[in-house]
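Section 5.1 Outputs to date
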Amino acid sequence: MGPSVRKGMLAVVAAVAIALVGWWWWARMQTGGPGAGFVSGNGRIEATEIDIATKYAGRVAEIFVGEGDFVKTGQVLAQMQIEVLNAQLDEARALAQQAINAVASAEAQVKMRESDLAAAQAVVVQRESDLDNAQRRLARTRTLSREGAASIQQFEDDQAAVRCAAAALDAAKAQAEAVRAAITAAQANVTGARSAVTAASATIARVEADIADSRLTAPCDGRVQFRIAQPGEVLGSGGKVLNMVDLTDVYMTFFLPETVAGKVALGSDVHIILDAAPRHVIPARVSFVASVAQFTPKTVETASERQKLMFRVKARIDKRLLQQHLEQVKTGLPGVAWLKLDPRAEWPPSLTVTFGRPS
């Protein structure tokens, strides 16, 4: 065997040894972490998805963003056509003005009826005075008639005058009561007119709210994923226009076996390493642990089979950290989430946080 052949064989042996050592270290890290106090699970970066949809049926007028665009809270993303709503708003405003004019007219009617009442009350006072004079005259005529100083005709005329004055007083009082009733009716008209103003104002507010809802805005900071509709398309109520992700609510979902999931507490530290950036360790915290197994074997009878029970765990990345790196956040990236089960264990240098710390 020549020297060149021996060197080739030694190189192959060395390569195999390096590969075996690398595989052993990788397997050790994947199954138990850097020690018995650590565990890991594979997952992908996910974020809360939000569908930007129209509240009412209508035609899409404009879309102001494209796929991949970053958007801020309250930013207008799309506009639905609002010509019909604008016409409804003009109509509602006209009805409101009519109602306001009706209130003014009804209030003027009340003032006029109140003036009529004052005049009617003055007539009542006048008729009461006339009746009093007629009654006094009748009393004098009755005395004079008994003494023979006045004729029977005069006495009867004064009696008729008293009756006429009493009738005139009753008529004046009836007129005053009628005016009071008219005032009550006019005041009711004022109340009805004011109610019409309130109803018209509510209609204006409703139409204005519909117009505001026709401007589709971003509910949070995020990134547009898909444009589902295009300008000119007619959508039904709830029709989707855009799909975006909330970049302030980013997490990794992974699965752990039953024996490990039971030891994981909410709020536990999680260190994430993405395949695309293996040198960066991202901090997160456990925000969810499933109460039931996500997938199990068909039959669970033995202890070894019970080890196959897997529970879903969610590790949420700190919101303030995300705010600092919004443009670098990408969903769908695969990676590994590491958890420390033993609180006394120290994170090894390879899992020390390098991308900020959770609050």
